[in-house]
Amino acid sequence: MSIAQNLQIVRERISKAAAQSGVASDSITLIAVTKTVDAERISEAIDAGVTDIGENYIQDSVAKFDVIGRSVRWHMIGHLQSNKARVAVPIFDLIHGVDGVSLAAEIGKRALMTGKEQSILVEVNISGEESKFGVKPEDALALCESTAAVDGICLAGMMGIAPFTDDEADVRRAFALLRGLWEKLPDENRTWLSMGMSGDFEMAVREGSNMVRIGTAIFGARG
After folding, report:
1. On the CB side of 184, how many CA atoms lie within 13 Å of its CA?
2. Tens of each residue's pLDDT in the chain, 223 residues
3. Longest dimension (CA), the chain
4. For residue 147, how many other CB atoms are within 10 A of its CB?
5. Treating both helix axes as pointing N-terminal to C-terminal, what angle do 168-182 and 137-148 enclose, rounded to 10 degrees?
6. Which candidate, 92, 121, 89, places its Cα nearest to that of 210?
7. Rounded Cα distance, 166 and 42, in Å
8. Partners of 158 in the beta sheet?
9. How many other CB atoms are found less than 10 A from the CB of residue 2?
10. Which residues have C-beta within 8 Å of that of residue 83, sequence separation ≥ 6?
11. CB 194 within 8 A of CB 213
C-alpha cells in the first residue's frame, strides 16, 4: 500500500484507541519516524498530511532538513550526544531523549547562543533494560526539576520506550509507570507524554500517551 494509505490506517487506529480512552483523536500528535527514509518519501508523507517527523541521527537530519526545511515540525527521538547539541538545536523543535543534566545544560547553552528556547522531553527508562537510554524511574522527577531550571530549556514532558515483549501486560505496566510520573510534573512541564511506536501505539494511547512515534507502520519495513 502507499504511504498515504498506510497513514490513513494508522490514523484510524489512533482514533479508535483514543475513543476507547475517552479523548479526542486530534489530541494525539503523530510523529512519522523517518529513520532510513529518503527526502522524496518524506515529502510524499507530508503531502498526505504528516506534520511532524522524527529523526534518530544528526547527520541524516542535516541532509534532510536542507531539502524539507520548516514545512514540518522536527523531533529528535534518538539519543543525542552532548557534542552534537550545537547541530541539533537549530534544527529540532522538540528533543525527546534528554537523560542527564549535563546534556540539558549543553542544549540550553546552544539554545541561548541560537536565540531560542529549546523544548525537550526527559527520557525515562521504563523497560528496565540496562542497554536502553533514559533516567531510572525513581530518579526521573528529580531530573525533570533540574532540567526545568536550565536557562534556554523548556521542559515539555517525558518520553519512554516500552519493553520489546509479546506480554501486553508488561507493556501496559511500563506505559502506566510513565504516565504516573508524568502526572506528577507541574502543569507548565506537562505538555507531552511521548510513548508508543508501531508495535504498541494503541496500548500507549489507551494508557494516556498524547504523542506517538510511528515509522514502519507508515513507511514499511526498513531496508
Report:
1. 14
2. 899 999 999 999 999 999 999 999 999 999 999 999 999 999 999 999 999 999 999 999 999 999 999 999 999 999 999 999 999 999 999 999 999 999 999 999 999 999 999 999 999 999 888 778 899 999 999 999 999 999 999 999 999 999 988 899 999 999 999 999 999 999 999 999 999 999 999 999 999 999 999 999 999 887 6
3. 47
4. 25
5. 30
6. 121
7. 30
8. 122, 193
9. 9
10. none
11. yes
Grid cell for residue 88? 541539533
C-alpha cell at position 70: 520548516
How far is 88 from 113, CA to CA, in rounded Å?
13
In 3D space, the residue among 81, 192, 99 whose CA is nearest the CA of residue 140 turns out to be 99
- Residue written as grid cell 557534542: 83
Residue 127, CB-side half-sphere exposure with 13 Å CA sphere: 16
CB 121 within 8 A of CB 158: yes
CB atoms within 10 A of CB 20: 11
Q: Which CATH superfamily is domain 3-18+27-219 in?
A: Alanine racemase (3.20.20.10)
> Count of residues for the chain?
223
**Cell digits of residue 219:** 513507511
